[in-house]
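Title: Prediction job returns without error message
Component: structure pipeline
Severity: low
Priority: P3
Assignee: unassigned

Description:
Job completed but the reporter wants confirmation the result is attached to the right record. Sequence as submitted:
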Amino acid sequence: MGLNDHFMKTSDFDYLLPESSIAQTPAEPRDSSRLLVLHRDTGELEHRIFRDVTDYLNAGDLLVLNQTRVIPARIYARKETGGRVEILLLRRRDPLTWEALVGGKGLRVGKRVVIEELEGQSSQTVQAEIFELLNGAERLIRFSEPIEPYFSRVGHVPLPPYIHEKLDDPERYQTVYAKEPGSAAAPTAGLHFTPRLLEELQVKGVRIAYVTLHVGLDTFAPVTEENPEEHKIHTEWCELPQETADAINETRKRGGRVIAVGTTSVRTLEGVATLQPSNTEFQLQPFMGETSIFILPGYQFKVVDALITNFHLPKSSLIMLVSAFAGREKILETYRIAVEEGYRFYSFGDATLIL
């Protein structure tokens, strides 16, 4: 740790990214994306293809995947005046009430809108009422009946704002193992895995375990405070089941590595570990509930030994997390080389393996 670590600034996590480096479409097949391998101990970089990840994982290692599913959370509605409103569901508070981002004018408390695709089908008109004003464009909205049963008809998968291409197959923004609906965005590091690649890893003796963390959109919001420690991180719901806790404890006991797929898996594992009493014989316990862990350089990782993740936005809490894992200078230098070498960035981009 250098002297300057006490004066960490958000601008320390900025880097230059040409627009052309942002991937607009996913690689086909999934595991043909590129993989930049960073060895933390030596600083060495290797340029590989994602399916080569099998070369770096050994029998006895444990791969931890986030099995959340993205909900088709973007819904269009109309005001009584006919104006169109866009609603982006962020989190469900109860069967009728959601935190949402709304786009449209005059959306004050008490205002009602009708869900567009169900409009005029008398038996199925679903209304939403603005219930409470939250931060900025966020509102608490209450539906006249649960909205999930209508998702297949009215919901659109919300792609990140920097992706301008239309996605032909919405499943391409889901991991192949997505199971538990609830995310506003995909845990994108997992998009590179195919069923066959997961099978190859298991044949090699790599174990696979699952956690669930429902990703909120605020994860991607840039940190606007000059001092990142003042940034308010939002809570996310997560679950670490008993069998995953057992698998982690066994892996550590036998000297295997815990490899987190994605920053969401890291936040689940480290968030749960941080909430638990530290004892000499560290045993991770199962957990279900809220986590709001914000990992900044200086953080001591308790569970994660290696990380598979995509390239993150400048000044985001996620580039701060990978900097905590591998060192800020090393990450910025790696990103600079990645730009030079034509790697594709963000959600549909290439991956890094940090060992």
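Comment from assignee: result matches the submitted record. The chain has two domains: 3-70+168-354, 74-154.
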